[in-house]
Amino acid sequence: MTPIIVWFRQDLRLADNPALSEAATTSRPIIPLYILEQDKQQSWSMGAASKVWLDRSLRSLRRSCEELGGSLILRQGCSETVLTDLIRETQATSVYWNRCYEPAVIDRDTELKTKLRSRGIEVRSFNAALLYDPWVLKTKSGTPFKVFTPFWKTLVSYGQPQSPCFRPDNTEFAKEVDSDTLENWSLIPKTPDWSKPIRDAWTPGEKGAQAQLQRFLDEGLNGYAERRDRPDLPHCSALSPYLHFGEISPRQIWQATMFKMAVAKDEALIRDCWAFLREVAWREFSYHLLFHYPELPTEPWNKKFNGFQWNDDQSQLLAWQRGQTGYPFIDAGMRQLWHTGWIHNRVRMVAASFLTKHLLLHWRKGEQWFWDTLVDADLANNAASWQWVAGCGFDAAPYFRIFNPMTQGKRFDPNGEYVRRWVPELSNLPNKYIHAPWEAPAHVLAGAGVALGSTYPHPIVDHKAARVRALDSYAEIRT
Q1: What's the CATH number where 106 sits?
Q2: From 222, 311, 345, 428, the catalytic residue
Q3: Structure confidence by residue, pLDDT tens digits, 18-62
Q4: Domain range spanning residue 323?
Q5: What is this structure's pTM?
Q6: Bridge partners of residue 95, in order along the sequence
């Protein structure tokens, strides 16, 4: 009855956790382990906002383990060293984990499996993060997908994904294993503590994830297909950070949505369900791309972009990061990001387009900023989405896609409520000018208490001129 180490990574939950469930079926003592990794192969170390989320998520997981009579073991350092030490301390003969799909982690895990097995340690890994492992879905010719729509059709053709597994309530845990403390890890910033708004905005952990899913299904799903692009309306699931940290699984989301669809009484709600599941599949597609093209986070898929002449204006980058571009829809999104660690997907796309097209700043600068400031910072989603917006990724004809920040604002925030919330210095402007304050007459600006260049900046670039410059620059790549 030697112990089994269950190594938690991006699967910080007890329900639908295949590694934990399989370990529980053996009736052997379980050692739940989380490692704050310091592996040399990890080129993308966790960003500051993600560390804040991780702290709260691990506290939640620790409480869940304690409810079952166990204790979450915390260690930090090189994964191989930590596991080797723990195996020696506890006489464990098995290590179970759920797979991660970042390129460096795949290489590390493969090497780690080989070394542990050579020492007589049983190693088993499982899929807990995706509906299907990224090598499962293929084109008819057996090659990886490069376009989402055929990927989506193939995924749906596979039928219902595997059902979630239950939480193993009758679990035996190993006792008296030394553990670090979260307080010693100092994941929460102290001087200054800028994280309080993020902590106030979210409830990390498995219970928080389930509550968020239920809230969305009850209040946000109806009308999702038509309104999901509206940042001023509550039709976004906001499940992305929970998915990234594995506090909920895509199988759980899929099953709950399909149940909602089964009891739906109108076709509109059924369309909403499929529209939402399609967005879940976009996450799967991003992982598919990252697995088959591991250089995606650092190298453009379209190799012509290796010679693209990106701008390097640091003052413009700083204005974008701080939400001081002079374009209210962009600034609202960037301030929402800084305040909550999250940004609505439509605004996320428009802000990314503004950086890469209007400012011609390198997409990797935006990718790195999002990585540090997003609580849902996810290597697959981040890399694939930034390349898509920048026009160097997997897309048939991307170069002329330049989002107009005024048009996008008027269409998706028609009453200016989103802008007024995050750019309060413009809150008294009439709807007519809320997305383009420079068009307002002087007396309107004065009446609203807006002094352009003082209380709110002038646009840092002219939209029309920036669009022409971007089209000319991208046209050179095409030829």
Answers
A1: 3.40.50.620
A2: 345
A3: 999 999 999 999 999 999 998 766 668 899 999 999 999 999 999
A4: 303-478
A5: 0.96
A6: 5, 123
